[in-house]
Write a structure and sequence with these properties.
Elements lengths: L11 E5 L2 E2 L5 H8 L5 E5 L2 E2 L10 E2 L3 H10 L3 H10 L3 E5 L1 H13 L4 E5 L18 H13 L2 E4 L2 H9 L7 E3 L19 E6 L8 H14 L3 E6 L5 H10 L6 E5 L3 H9 L3 E4 L14 H9 L3 E4 L4 H4 L7 E3 L4 H12 L2 H18 L2 H24 L1
Length: 386
């Protein structure tokens, strides 16, 4: 299944993703299915959620070959597919996933593009890189920086961090992700109820505990307020305990994991999107969360923390409200401001939707990405002629 028709005879890109695909990584799925001039084939260690992310072809491994691939990066199956496939370039998502692509683009002398999305950059600068689970990626990153032709960061913030981690500045560029902006916009609620939504993996860097505490403060003045939490993760139990201790039972709905279509519809039925992300204690941080792009495309009024690349896409007071990280009082104040000012909610949402349509439409972003591919292939062709 693809976002556009894909006629044969187009250049081919081998897409590497360690696990295709975690439910929170819809941006990878959208990027490959909306290709217009390139054909994509996916190479992955493990196929996940195939029913939610239907795409073909996806090449995955099993048994001893999967185990060997994880430890050595080598797969006889993948080498055979590369010999037969006649790929033009390789594109890997996440720095850690790009390590798996290195033997194949090196053996077959193919250009390598890597997109860094968030945790994969600060990890290289923190003490976490020496953890046994991360050491191989850190060691591989030196080879990756030398071998890659183009390193894409989803925000200026990540670009700066990537250069600090040792990536050659001349190879690093910012490439923002895209979203389908042809979605129907939200409809302003007519009843007294007002719903605040937070969505994402329940991990430290999402900062959901600060959003919950801010909601509790805003609720004191606005008792009809409700909070909807979408997602799951290691901190779910902590959030459930926090909700109970603050006396919020019955005021907060925890939906669990939703499909992308369900998430968008749930967002449309909400009134305010809250994105209180923080830098985690181990240095983990956001690039630009997809919920920001999705909320903008739907015309949702947003409150977000001044974190990662969010100030690069949210203009404070124009397309959303920005507050300092971990500032519960500021989050609660911004919530009250939007609750009490319908005109501000409408103006922020409309401006966010216009910005999404002009700057973040998935078709525009794919065109920009394919132009980067074109340039790499032209450079490779010119080098071979010398």
């Amino acid at each position: 299944m693809s976002g556009v028709d894909r006629p044969a005879g187009r250049p081919k890109v081998a897409v590497f993703s360690s696990r295709f695909l975690h439910y929170s990584q819809t941006f990878v799925f959208d990027e490959i299915r909306y290709h217009a001039r390139y054909l994509a084939e996916v190479f992955t260690r493990e196929r996940l959620n195939a029913e939610k992310f239907p795409f073909s072809p996806v090449h995955s491994l099993t048994g001893l070959e999967a185990f060997a691939y994880r430890t050595t990066l080598l797969s006889p199956t993948f080498f055979r597919l590369f010999r037969e496939g006649r790929f033009d370039l390789v594109h890997a998502h996440f720095g850690s996933g790009a390590c798996y692509a290195l033997p194949y683009c090196t053996r077959f002398r193919l250009p390598l593009v890597v997109t860094f999305h968030g945790y994969d950059v600060p990890l290289l600068l923190s003490s976490e890189r020496f953890h046994p689970a991360n050491w191989a990626y850190w060691a591989c990153s030196r080879w990756l920086f030398r071998r890659a032709d183009l390193l894409l960061a989803v925000s200026e913030d990540l670009r700066s961090l990537l250069i600090s981690a040792g990536a050659p500045a001349e190879k690093v560029a910012v490439h923002r992700l895209g979203i389908d902006t042809m979605l129907p916009p939200r409809v302003e609620r007519t009843d007294e109820k007002m719903v605040v939504l937070m969505a994402g993996r329940m991990v430290e860097k999402k900062g959901f505990e600060y959003g919950i505490r801010a909601f509790a403060q805003a609720l004191k003045k606005h008792p009809a307020l409700r909070l909807r939490l979408v997602g799951d993760g290691e901190r779910r139990r902590d959030y459930e305990r926090l909700i109970g201790s603050l006396g919020l039972s019955g005021k907060v709905e925890m939906t669990g994991i939703l499909s992308h279509a369900e998430l968008l519809e749930t967002m449309r039925r909400s009134d305010i999107v809250l994105v209180p992300s923080v830098t985690a204690r181990n240095g983990d941080r956001e690039g630009i969360p997809m919920v920001v792009y999705e909320a903008a495309a739907l015309g949702m009024p947003m409150i977000a923390s001044k974190h990662g690349g969010m100030p690069e896409v949210i203009a404070d007071g124009v397309t959303g409200l920005l507050v300092p990280e971990r500032d519960v009082a500021a989050l609660a104040g911004a919530l009250r401001q939007l609750i009490e000012n319908p005109a501000l909610r409408q103006s922020l949402g409309e401006a966010a939707r216009r910005k999404a349509q002009s700057e973040f439409d998935i078709r525009q972003r794919i065109t920009a990405l394919e132009e980067r591919y074109d340039e790499l292939l032209r450079r490779r062709s010119s080098t071979r002629l010398l």
